[in-house]
Design a protein that fits this description.
Elements: E1 3-7, H1 11-22, E2 26-30, H2 35-42, E3 46-47, H3 51-55, E4 60-63, H4 68-76, E5 90-93, H5 99-111, E6 115-118, E7 121-122, H6 125-129, E8 133-139, H7 141-146, H8 148-154, E9 155-162, H9 166-194, H10 199-206, H11 214-225, H12 234-250, H13 256-270, H14 281-288
Parallel strand pairs: 1-2, 1-4, 2-3, 4-5, 5-6, 8-9
Antiparallel strand pairs: 6-8, 7-8
Length: 295
């Protein structure tokens, strides 16, 4: 059993807490909005008034926050968790943030005598609550090996990728690909409708071929029904696409398709779809082509 603290109780942070509580861990929580604390306290979590108080109580701190600026403030700012953490404790950064910020944070943790792993995830809140995520881990390999068993409580697939920042780099790479395949599938979907096929016929045919993939199998049937209930929103993906574009610019890498992908997800936001599932890129393309949306 681990004594673990979670900073940030959005969909993912709350799901991490539920999963770890179900596995017998002592779970401590902090969130700026107190409303989100109540349900977890009712399940056995221990609430703290500040990140500092949480940090000095636990052996492992997990951050699951919106961006690197919030992480900086909650962990290293006034009353930040890092100031209270024990020497040799572990900070696991599970947000999706800029890799350069991740590397900087790891150095600050090292100076404070605290171990740090970056471990952003692939998967949604339902998978997080059941411990079925894929973890993309960066950091010192000896620290990774020491905590491998604990990390396996958070995800069924744990991938070690190298030094600090590697997990956050890979997360942006994979989500760039996710956005691209979502757009490609959606364009094919729109053309199939223009050519007279029913939505379900196209999706079924696609998934019976070697071209099938996660997006077509999981999101395809929902697109065919016009169901864009959010698990991973357009706003979330667009943030990741922006971070990926920033990395490409710094490395002087030409990614012309990625630029187009970002533009079209930006169009989705401008059409009011920011809080819809990212698969609603299919809805955007139907609207742009004058097609009556499904559903």
């Amino acid at each position: 059993m681990a004594r673990v603290g979670i900073l940030g109780l959005g969909k993912m942070g709350s799901a991490f807490a539920v999963n770890l509580l179900s596995k017998g861990n002592e779970v401590h929580v902090y969130n700026r909005s107190k409303e989100k604390l109540r349900a977890l306290v009712a399940k056995g979590a221990i609430a703290h008034p500040s990140p500092y108080e949480l940090g000095k109580t636990v052996d492992v701190v997990i951050t699951s926050l919106t961006d690197q600026d919030v992480v900086d403030g909650v962990v290293m700012g006034k009353d930040g968790a890092l100031h209270g953490m024990k020497q040799g404790g572990l900070w696991i950064e599970m947000s999706t943030i800029d890799p350069d910020a991740s590397i900087r944070q790891a150095e600050q943790a090292r100076k404070a005598g605290v171990n740090r792993l970056d471990a952003p995830v692939i998967g949604n809140a339902n998978m997080a609550a059941e411990g079925r995520l894929s973890l993309l881990v960066g950091g010192d390999e000896s620290v990774f090996e020491k905590y491998r068993e604990f990390l396996s409580q958070l995800g069924s697939t744990v991938i070690y990728l190298g030094r600090s920042g590697s997990g956050h780099k890979m997360k942006l790479i994979l989500n760039l690909h996710l956005g691209a395949i979502g757009l490609a599938f959606s364009e094919a979907f729109v053309l199939s409708k223009k050519l007279g096929f029913e939505p379900g016929v196209f999706v079924d045919a696609f998934n019976k071929t070697v071209q099938k993939n996660y997006f077509s199998e999981v999101k395809g049937p929902l697109i065919a029904k016009g169901d864009y209930s959010p698990l991973f929103t357009v706003n979330m993906l667009l943030k990741d696409l922006t971070l990926a574009e920033n990395q490409a610019t710094r490395q002087k890498v030409a990614l012309p398709a990625a630029s187009l992908v970002k533009q079209l997800y930006t169009t989705s936001v401008n059409l009011g779809q920011g809080e819809m599932d990212f698969s609603s890129i299919a809805l955007t393309l139907q609207r742009l082509n004058g097609i009556e949306p499904v559903g």
